[in-house]
Amino acid sequence: MADKKAQLIIEGAAPVELPILSGTAGPDVIDVRALTNQGVFTYDPGFMSTAACESKITFIDGDKGILMHRGYPIEQLAEKSDYLETCYALLYGELPTAEQKAEFTGLVKNHTMVHEQMKSFLNGFRRDAHPMAVMCGMVGALSAFYHDSLDNNNPQHREISAIRLIAKMPTMAAMCYKYSAGQPIMYPRNDLSYAENFLHMMFNTPCEEKKINPILAKAMDRIFILHADHEQNASTSTVRLTGSTGANPFACIAAGIAALWGPAHGGANEAVLTMLDEIGDVSNIEKFIAKAKDKNDPFKLMGFGHRVYKNFDPRAKVMKQTCDEVLSELGINDPKLELAMKLEEIARNDPYFKERNLYPNVDFYSGIILKAIGIPTSMFTVIFALARTAGWIAQWKEMYAEGYKIGRPRQIYTGYTQRDYLPLDQRK
Ligand code: SDX
């Protein structure tokens, strides 16, 4: 991969040659590992210009608005694939044959239940606890039930942990919701598809098991696909960094859930609905656009902007199409959609947003669909975490398969140079 070189000239020192590595797509990288021997570090807060790893799973071109999983464009996966098939591709590199798909689906179905004692964790939380707090706790606690398969260096243990996590996330997510609603927990059913099963566990009760609306199940499955993986974002980088210490996969995914919770990241989908509620009416849009542009105001237009996409987030486009489909097929006329579309139109024509290439991201429209499906706002980021588990665990598995070192960034130190201890009676 290294056929080009960069030369670093440091005053007073001999030039340093650094290999330039090329991937199969995207920018080249300058391999700076040799710099430690030169007594200097690179400095890149927020990792704006840093490739932290090599990966074959997901590729993003932020300028062209391209997102591919194992080379398959997200638009094609969203239209033609389903979530479990996408999980298979993320985990194993190829779309499954019919036989492989049936086997994988069967394997996931046989692991959807959680240990009955997992219910006890719920009782430790207030009913009004944020479901992301509960998910952090429950997913981390899963490792307590699988002492027989936590050897990360054993490929079979890595495999069964990946299956268990993908299979059990919908069950735990639904448990969180039912607990908050004071309703009995619904067990998974093996006769339902992945998305149908989730909606069954969320909205059915022991008193009545309604047939799951296929339109809603398809929309749910597509939302899972759109959130499945996204290169080295903050939560995926958290999973990799946690994994590099040898922590068990359940702890790594719990760390990813915690990182995703932030409103600048996965928490944005919940924040978009809260923002639309706050704006309330088209007549208030200009006021909130002004707030978003005001450097002295911490308010940001939630669901807008992205570290990588400086063009449309391709997921936002598919999400918007799905939004239109679901609302029209359900005959829902949600004023929030009108408000969101007007907000997008005004923002996209405002110089501040245009100059900074701020476009709607995956979170801008997702909440409106989730609301139409009946998912409460507080569960939006849980849905994101549920879907992203496939990407997190695929990246975690790749890290182990490709070899890794413990992640340990350095710093530029700007604190006090050495000074002597000051006895208490001499301090002013
Ligand atoms: C996700 O990384 C991923 O892949 C994440 C994700 C995934 O799938 O994993 O795609 C999921 O997290 C999507 C992003 C969801 N977050 C939001 O919608 C929250 C609102 N967006 C912003 O917080 C922001 O856009 C970020 C955090 C998403 C990106 O921040 P960056 O890359 O650090 O960009 P920045 O803050 O440096 O912004 C550049 C400029 C700044 O202004 P100036 O200093 O140039 O004057 O744009 C401004 C910012 O103030 N800006 C915004 C804005 N986003 C950026 N101004 C108003 N509203 C916004 N939403």
Topology:
Blueprint: E1 2-8, E2 16-21, E3 29-30, E4 58-61, E5 66-69, E6 72-73, H1 74-80, H2 83-92, H3 98-109, H4 118-123, H5 131-142, H6 155-181, H7 194-203, H8 214-226, H9 234-243, H10 249-260, H11 268-279, H12 285-293, H13 314-329, H14 335-348, H15 351-355, H16 363-373, H17 380-402
Antiparallel strand pairs: 1-2, 2-3, 4-5, 5-6
Helix pairs in contact: 1-8, 2-17, 5-6, 5-10, 6-7, 6-17, 7-8, 8-13, 8-16, 8-17, 9-10, 9-17, 10-17, 11-16, 13-16
The structure holds s-citryldethia Coenzyme A (SDX).
S-citryldethia Coenzyme A binds next to loops.
Give descriptors for this structure.
428 residues, mainly alpha, Rubrerythrin, domain 2, Citrate Synthase, domain 1, 2 domains, three-stranded antiparallel beta sheet, 6 strands, binds s-citryldethia Coenzyme A, Citrate_synthase, Citrate_synthase_sf, membrane
Describe the fold and architecture.
The longest helix has 27 residues, at 155-181. The protein is globular and about 80 Å long. The chain has two domains: 5-51, Rubrerythrin, domain 2; 75-404, Orthogonal Bundle (Citrate Synthase, domain 1), CATH 1.10.580. The strands form two sheets. A three-stranded antiparallel sheet has the order 1-2-3, with no helix packed on it. A three-stranded antiparallel sheet has the order 4-5-6. Strand 4 (58-61) and strand 5 form a beta hairpin. The chain is mostly helical and 428 residues long. The protein has helices at 74-80, 83-92, 98-109, 118-123, 131-142, 155-181, 194-203, 214-226, 234-243, 249-260, 268-279, 285-293, 314-329, 335-348, 351-355, 363-373, 380-402, and strands at residues 2-8, 16-21, 29-30, 58-61, 66-69, 72-73. The mean pLDDT is 95. The protein binds s-citryldethia Coenzyme A (SDX). The site of s-citryldethia Coenzyme A has 21 residues, from loops. It comes from Geopseudomonas sagittaria. The chain crosses the membrane at residues 364-387. InterPro entries: Citrate_synth-like_lrg_a-sub, Citrate_synth-like_sm_a-sub, Citrate_synthase, Citrate_synthase_AS, Citrate_synthase_bac-typ, Citrate_synthase_sf, Citrate_synthase_typ-I.
